[in-house]
Amino acid sequence: MAQNARAYIDIETTGFSPRDDELTVVGVCLEQGSHRSVIQLYEETLSRAALVDVLSPCTALYSYNGTCFDLPFIRAKLRVDLAASHAHYDLMHNCHRCGLYGGLKVVERRLRIPRKVKGVDGFMAVRLWLDYSENGNRQALRKLLRYNAEDVRNLIHLRNRLGVD
User: Do residues 44 and 98 lie in contact, with contact meaning Cβ atoms separated by under 8 Å?
Assistant: First the structure.
């Protein structure tokens, strides 16, 4: 993929504390022109080297609440400072400037950005991971990955709706 690609990033964890909880999935949607691809790192593929490699063609990185959650968690768990290596745009702040408050799902509903994966939020994402990791439930993993993929894809729609470059 050519340089100057955009990357949209979202993580799944087992809780809010980078010190006490696990980083379970890092989802990235790479966008170069009209080409988009989702890469998800988890289990043995979840490493510093893999994340750096995935993001290597990107100059711009977009998240929702990434400044306070995603990027610090990644820095603590994978020892990579994405804010230092990429121009990072936290779309939550753009939402606030437009009077849009709440989590990503709330903002999506207000902007009529549709979702296919129903009934999953951050709490359910933790439960899906635990069902997979403790019980081997592959269906729970597939649902978690579909949820995460939709999160990163919807960040593109959110950026476009907000008119963010």
Answer: no
3-state secondary structure of 8: strand
Reading the block at residue 78, the tokens are 């994978």
Decide: 3 and 12 in contact? Cβ < 8 Å: no
Q: How distant, in Å, are the alpha carbons of 51, 92, 121, 123, 150 from that of 80?
A: 9, 22, 26, 26, 24
Q: Tens-of-pLDDT digits for all 165 residues of the chain?
A: 446 799 999 999 999 999 999 999 999 999 998 899 999 999 999 999 999 999 999 999 999 999 999 999 999 999 999 999 999 999 999 999 999 999 999 999 999 999 999 999 999 999 999 999 999 999 999 999 999 999 999 999 999 999 998
| Amino acid letter for position 64 | Y
Among the listed residues 113, 148, 108, the one whose alpha carbon sits nearest the alpha carbon of residue 128: 148
| String of DSSP letters for 75-113 | HHHH---HHHHSEEEEHHHHHHHTT--S-HHHHHHHTT-
Block residue for tokens 């709706």: 161
On whether the CB atoms of residues 21 and 13 are closer than 8 A, the answer is: yes
pTM, entire model: 0.95
Task: Tell me how far apart the alpha carbons of residues 139 and 136 are, in angstroms, rounded to a whole number.
Answer: 9
